[in-house]
Write a structure and sequence with these properties.
heterodimer; A: 663 residues; alpha/beta; Rossmann fold; 3 domains; seven-stranded antiparallel β-sheet; six-stranded mixed β-sheet; 18 helices; elongated; B: 176 residues; mainly alpha; two-stranded antiparallel ribbon; two-stranded antiparallel sheet; 61% helix; 7% strand; globular
Amino acid sequence: MLLQSIKLENFRQFKNEQIDFSTDWERNVTIIIGENGTGKTTFAQAFFWCLYGETDFTDKSLLNKLVGTDLLPNQEAVVKVILRLNHGRTDYTITREQVYKKSYKNTLTSNNTVLNVAYRQEDGQLVYLKPLLCEAEVKKILPRELSKYFFFDGERIEKMSKEVQSGRKSSEFAEAVKGLLGLNSIISAINHLNPRSKYGVIGSYEESYDSKSDTNIQRYTKEIADFQVQIDDIQSRLDEIDDEIAKATTRKEDLSEKIKQYAEGERLQTEKEKLIGKLNAAKRSKATATSTLLKDFNSNMPAFFAKSTIKGALEVLSKEDFLGKDIPEMHSKTIEYLLSRGTCICGTHLDEGSVPYNKVKELIEYLPPQSIGVSVGQFVKDSRIRVKDDVDVLTNLQQMCALLSEQDDNILELIDDIKAIESKLGGGDIHSKVKALFQEQQLCDKAIRDLTNEMKNKNEQLGALKTKRERRITERAELSLRDDANKKIEIYKAYAQSIYDDLITIYQKSETVIRIKLQETINEIFKSIYAGSMSLSIDEKYNISVYVDDYDGDVETSTAQSISVIFAFITGIIKLARDNQVSEDNDKSMLTSEPYPLVMDAPLSTFDKRRIKTVCEALPRIAEQVIIFIKDTDGDLAEENLGVKVGCRHRFDKLNEFETKLM
Amino acid sequence: MFDKEYSFRGSHALKVDKLTAQFDENSKAKLFARNIDIYVNAPIVGFLYGRTALLDTSTQETAKIMGDRVIYSKEDLKYNYRLIILLDAKHEPDPVERINKAFRTIGTEVAMVDEALFESYVRGGVDVLYEKLIDGVANPDDYVNRLYDFIEEFDERFNQAISTESILALCEKANA
């Protein structure tokens, strides 16, 4: 397919603009330059709308705002895009239009879009396709699902590259690749013969046996069909199992990777826990020291506080004489008792006023409380005890405080260490995270084990069913040979089977060759775009992996690398498609293919200058037609690098928010 | 004397509560283990710092010491009472009369004025201890630091020049 021109009428800010594209074999690049907001993306979207009736715009109303405003009630305006292109050897004119009508409430309503496809016959006659056939014809020219590989913007490239590398869309890619590289015709032939479908040639023979000649043929046919159903079920379950195992394995690998990343974290976590243990011990030790300090202080403080007053009191007392006068172990109350009794201990009568009475009464002066010698003596004794056991409270306190200060330093140091580790860990409990990862990994292991067992069982069942089916087929073949009609069917079927087998072989061979060639082509392009010692590999399921040449393992790619990958991928496919078309090789004559253009909206914005140069050099070499919508700042650079390859250049100029003209 | 329940009152009760409160969750440490420890030591501190205080009746707060606890510490309380009475020359300039008060009239009706003095030193001592150890402290570690500063200051001010030997020598002399 080569794009010849596109014409936009009332399509958003384009009232009536047409762009011709370069179809020159050599100067195959068309550049469309415009400032931001001039409508480059709108123009690129116009292709999409014309072919498939859809756009990515949030505002679904496509009618030019000025035209819409000027409409009077009940008046109509048409949005139209006319795309002229060449496909195969035919020139097509594809037109899509949509009628907008103003209501009396001043609102715009739109009808469904109408697609028209016309082509010019070799005799020059213009033929319009019936409306019902138009969409099918567009699909034939460029199926919608493949279109995104040829009409894409910078954002989409990024998205696609992620999809390609995640492997999620690999089956879609595989289909795209097969389609674009011309394997579709073989696939169609294989599907046409398909023995597994009763609508396929071989399948329909299965249904055609004449059972009247022998009831066993009918029974066997039914059994064979039943076996086939079971085989198909098992086969599809096996495919599912394959997928599930692959998913579980990928997840397990992801988990291993995460666990590996956490290994350092886990070491830090262990270290942190050790430090927390030490910190708690240091805190306990400090607490013990504090409580010992205060216990000592409480028991020694009376003597400490009183020390100076004890000395002062003793000095006061030492100036008086209290000793030698007291009668030991007696109290004044003893004397008062004797006086009131009137008899001394010795038996002498103590009559008041008598000499013995007065003598005994005098003794009161030498007894407490009148005499204080005993009390003072006890006070001095108490003082001696207090002072004698005096502990150096200050020195003790100093030592304990020094110990506490050491412990404080230790605690602060530990807290600092823990904080440092925590900042490295970035919060959260690594052990529990790793434990969860391990548990998930075990679940994956279990799933893989269970699925592998199931696969083994299914394979055994499959083998048994196939044997049974083969036996029945043989038996039926023997029976059918006895009847002429059935014999014929058996022979036809054998022919068809043989063709089918041949086609499968050719398909597989071609597919492998194409895949390997695609890998080589992509690598060649990738290396020319993205200088660096990296290679791409494509596995059987069309998953793409990026390798550093001297490193064993898939590597994480940067955005520029990822985009280079997808560039290489798309341009690789186009290059192969083009090679196919010009090939004279007989084997490849079965692989018909059509070259496609590359229509790109702002493809260079993620690249640096050096890569823009390499991309600009590579693209026109690879694609048959390159149409680039580009902002003015990148435009000069692109034009400079694309140089002589530019066949057409256009520039948009924004008249106002609602209208852009082509200069 | 010193044979029944005792209560700190008003602001002094609040200060006693704080002086005996647990200040550190980890060590469960308190500056003073019990109210009685303050009752025994505060009067000496009050006397040495020359601080007395009136009974604060502005609030109904009390910090009590049970009667048996007071009786158990009676000898220590009496001893400190005597120290103060023997030394407070402002209260009684005549040393012989101070000795008389300390040993002869102690616990009698005439001693009520002396007991009142002792009690005002108890309250003054509580004020000093609170100012030195609690007031303005922000975190647990500061309590120990403040205690250390106070003990160091006290030691320097009152104890440093006094040797145990000199006191023991005085004991000998008083007994001679």
